[in-house]
Amino acid sequence: MSITKSLKHYLLLLSEIDSVYHEANLKLNISNSYSIILYTICLGGGSCPLQKIKKLSGLNKQTINSSIRNMEKENLVYLEYIDGKSKRISLTQKGQELANNTVMKIMDMENEIISRWNQEDLQKYLSMTEDFLAALKEKTAGL
User: Fold this and answer.
1) From CA 62, how far away is CA 126, in angstroms rounded?
2) Is 0.85 surpassed by the pTM of this model?
3) Number of structural domains, the chain?
4) DSSP letter assigned to residue 41
5) Which residue numbers delimit the HTH marR-type domain (predicted)?
6) Is the dihedral angle over the CA atoms 25, 102, 76, 91 positive or is it negative?
7) CB within 8 A of 86, min separation 6: which ones?
8) Range 79-106 burial, b when 16+ CB lie within 10 A, else e
C-alpha cells in the first residue's frame, strides 16, 4: 500500500503539532502527561469525571493513574466518588495555579490563533476533522 502525498503531509503536520506542544511543555516545566491531564480538567471548568480523561487524553491507563497519584501527592488534584465507582478529579488551589501558569497559557494562545480564522474556514476545518475522526473510528473498529 502506498501512502499518498496528502496523507504524508497530514501526518507530518500532526507530528509537528505534537512536537510544538511537547516543546511548550518543556518550556513551561511540565510533563506531557501532567499537561494533558490538566488541560482536560480545565476543559471541564476545574473538574471532570476521571473517565473523560481516559477517553480524551490518548494516554494509557497506567500513565494516567501514575500521573494522578503523583499529582495528588503534590496537592495539585483530588479525587472524589460521584456515583458508586465513578470518580471525579478536581484541581486544588495549587493545581489551579499550576494550570493558570501552564495549560491555560497554551489555551490562550490556541484561542488567539483560532480567533483569527474566519468562521467559514473554522467550521470547514472542524467539520472535515470530525469526518476524518468518524471514518477512522469506523475503519479501526474491526482491528
Assistant:
1) 31
2) yes
3) 1
4) H
5) 23-122
6) negative
7) 49, 50, 51
8) eeeeeeeeebbbbbeebbebbeebbeeb
Q: What is the largest CA-CA distance in the chain?
A: 52
In degrees, rounded to 5, the angle at the alpha carbon of residue 102 between the alpha carbons of residues 69 and 73 is 20
SS3 68: helix
Q: What is the CATH number of the domain that holds 74?
A: 1.10.10.10
Residue 24 structural domain: 5-140
Looking at residue 58, its amino acid is G
- The enclosing H or E element of 83 equals strand 77-83
pLDDT tens-place string over residues 51-100: 999 999 999 999 999 999 999 999 999 999 998 889 999 999 999 999 99
Q: Specify the residue for cell string 491507563.
A: 61
> How far apart, in whole angstroms, are the C-alpha atoms of residue 42 and residue 95?
10
Among 35, 41, 40, CA closest to 18: 35
